[in-house]
Amino acid sequence: MKNFRLDGKVAWVTGASYGIGFALACAFADAGADIVFNDINQELVDKGLAAYAERGIHAHGYVCDVTDEAAVNQLVETVNAEVGHINILVNNAGIIKRIPMCEMSAAEFRQVIDVDLNAPFIVSKAVIPDMIRQGGGKIINICSMMSELGRETVSAYAAAKGGLKMLTKNIASEFGEFNIQCNGIGPGYIATPQTAPLRERQPDGSRHPFDQFIIAKTPAARWGEAEDLAGPAVFLASPASDFVNGHILYVDGGILAYIGKQPQ
Ligand code: NAP
Ligand code: GCO
Q1: Does the reported pTM lie above 0.90?
Q2: Of the ligands numbered here, which is closest to the C-alpha atom of 93?
């Protein structure tokens, strides 16, 4: 059987000082990979380095804005020299702006598209030529429920994550012959700082209405934890998925399968 080990591989997870990226990088390290991560400023990178060290992981952390093409290309050169060739890339860094569409400025819309869609293009493009020279590689794009569904206030995010789903399929199509597998993970609603505002307790101590809505909409009847994404990510990074390409693996506790609770 092709296995799930990542020994000898270098894995770069973007925006991985905390949250989903951190959990995925820890899982890759547990499976044997060397970890590279970046974040937007030194403070976050230092926080990340300390968190990895606490888990017994010697990670390589760098400051890099994933929307800055020159900085991304420079980082790839630095990683090649200091750590090794990048075998696994996870496009994880992302932002969301929850603003009703007609109140959102074009600049705000563009900013979300820039981080959540243009950056995965920039970062993938920076590593693919070397992956081809190395005989293959794995790219995992962190998509969303919003790659499939819409909702009020997240027009830019949904447009970006829908686009990221198609970028995933296109990378798979264009580079599959070079033994590059590009797949997506579509997390359901995961408890991280990004979704903290949707889970805040109400002044009377009751659950946030959106929190209650998600519990009712999820057959698993709970929010996901970042660790719920770890096994699927290791699968997509490992030889076990060598013939899986252009697939979006939804890890959502069943949300996309479910029409919602029937009226009582
Ligand atoms: P998070 O807690 O906000 O973490 C995202 C990380 O990306 C942060 O460290 C963030 O830095 C960094 N980042 C933002 N812009 C960047 C840039 N231009 N360059 C480099 N790093 C940048 O988010 P998360 O919940 O762990 O989400 C990770 C990914 O999963 C995102 O793509 C998100 O859209 C996606 N996702 C999340 C959920 C969920 O329910 N949480 C569900 C589906 C998909 P700052 O702290 O400075 O912002
Ligand atoms: C929102 C949420 C979502 C999740 C996630 C779902 O406001 O609806 O933030 O978009 O973060 O991407 O998969």
Answers
A1: yes
A2: 1
